[in-house]
Amino acid sequence: MGYKLFNFGALWLNDDIQHVPVQLGKDGDIPQYDNKSSIFIGAGSQTETIVWVKPDDINLLIADRILLGNVSWVDLEKNGFVKGRETIIHGQRFRCRLLRVGLKNDEPNEWDSILDETCDANFLWHCKRTAFWGIDTSDGQKSRSVICGFPSTRCRYNLYAKDRQKNIGLRPVLEPMGSFSDDDNCTLDGVGFRLSSIPGTDIFCPVLRPTLSTVFADVPDGQKVKMYTITENGHPIHPNEMFKNATNLTVTDRYFGDEYLVQWVISNGVAVASKPLLKNL
């Protein structure tokens, strides 16, 4: 059970970066939707970056708070957040979408799995005075959808999908899809891979994308696999150890012992390390 935080990317309305809210609630500083602009997550600035929570063993990065209010589920669907839309941030490809939150409190769903792996405290998720739209709709006509939030992280309510309120809005999720580059930079078991890392932190969270899309085709999303070893200047690093310089890190198929094998989670045709390596400061 655990998580790591990453800082990168920003919310855009048309050509304008929106500030990340600090005072949450109806009278706070949550950016408000103008009912017409294009909404998307893209590269940020040095002053306005989103905090993403990456749970261990789950290939998702979830915004730690809502980023936009006065936006309906219908608005978000029109902007691609229900089916998911691809974005590129710092050379990394992601699918950006809403969370699957379930229709009822006792129904297995993505949001509860995330909370079980991390925690459901307000200091992490900032749900006390806000709520966010999930993908889920409560009927086939998409007239009502599910929101999660106030007063707590696990509370769920049905709301008309066209409703807009100041403190109900967008909490985006990113699915890692690997480096934007198609060139391989390491070869493992005779297969070319592009090794990269999730941006926004000093830690190293490796992502392996095979240059042949069929390599992980038969592996179910969410499957955990132990394989390969991370080395620094040719020396193996235990998954619980720290590294000194990220530029000296690589992945090898050379076997140093089971204790050095990295556990990966497979999804979207890529492998993401279950837990990142921490930098030795």
3D structure, described in words:
- The structure is a single chain.
- By secondary structure, this protein is mainly beta.
- It has two domains: 3-175, no CATH class; 182-279, no CATH class.
- It is 6% helix and 38% strand.
- The strands form six sheets. It has a six-stranded antiparallel beta sheet with strand order 1-5-6-14-9-8, with no helix packed on it. A six-stranded antiparallel beta sheet has the order 15-16-17-24-23-18, with no helix packed on it. A five-stranded mixed beta sheet has the order 7-13-10-11-12, with no helix packed on it.
- A hairpin with an 8-residue loop joins strand 16 (191-197) and strand 17.
- The longest helix is centred in the middle third of the chain and has 8 residues, at 110-117.
- The radius of gyration is 19 Å and the shape is elongated.
Q: From N to C, what is the helix and strand string?
A: EEEEEEEHEEHHEEEEEEEEEEEEEEEE
How many strands?
25
Largest sheet: 6 strands, antiparallel
**Tell me, what's the shape?**
elongated
Mean pLDDT: 93
Number of helices in the DSSP assignment:
3
Largest beta sheet: strand ordering: 1-5-6-14-9-8
Low-confidence runs of at least 5 consecutive residues: none
Fraction of residues in helix: under 10%
What percentage of amino acids are in beta strands?
35-45%
